[in-house]
Amino acid sequence: xxxxxxxxxxxxxxxxxxxxxxxxxxxxxxxxxxxxxxxxxxxxxxxxxxxxxxxxxxxxxxxxxxxxxxxxxxxxxxxxxxxxxxxxxxxxxxxxxxxxxxxxxxxxxxxxxxxxxxxxxxxxxxxxxxxxxxxxxxxxxxxxxxxxxxxxxxxxxxxxxxxxxxxxxxxxxxxxxxxxxxxxxxxxxxxxxxxxxxxxxxxxxxxxxxxxxxxxxxxxxxxxxxxxxxxxxxxxxxxxxxxxxxxxxxxxxxxxxxxxxxxxxxxxxxxxxxxxxxxx
Length: 280
Known about the structure:
Helix content is 16%, strand content 51%.
């Protein structure tokens, strides 16, 4: 009797250890946004552009303010956003006049992105000297800018439903587009990000990130194709339920098509982008 009992106990212990090895170190990721919260996102970029054989370096900083409101269903909140600060590179473009809102799930799923306001500058007395057709085209172009920026404002990737262990990865894919037939500008983009969980320590999850994107842009008869590849590191605060830092280096190749001159037809842009989120 002792031998079968011992074998049975050994089997039970083995199954318990196997179960522990399967589930130990597994983490469920979700956002933990709560009504009443205010978040500030600082987006810093540095780009090195080579055009016509000349190199130029541009730096910019954008601050996005988020406010969290109660959602209509369990697990959902309403997230409102506006661009509180733009760097000098924005010129006359004032995106602070635009207010964005969307339904945001704790998984990161976003639905019903809306925006209000206009970023078109006041042309003043000069508007009378602009041909009606040109003025209409300008108005349509400025209307498309908030549409094109909505995915940058709501940049949060969606988490998978399953738990993740160290070394596990998940993909986040997006397809975006602006404009319809007859509009002065039309864009179509596809993006894929791959996240790998590298470590979890003291409530912080460390990810490496790779992304690929392809965009086709058509504007006023000109067409260009933009390909981008990047990699970086991201830090997720599991208690706050939010990414707190994300830095990425990317290489972008821009093909301007036959309409551009031979020296400006193909351009390369090296870019470093850093996202920093802070609960206020």
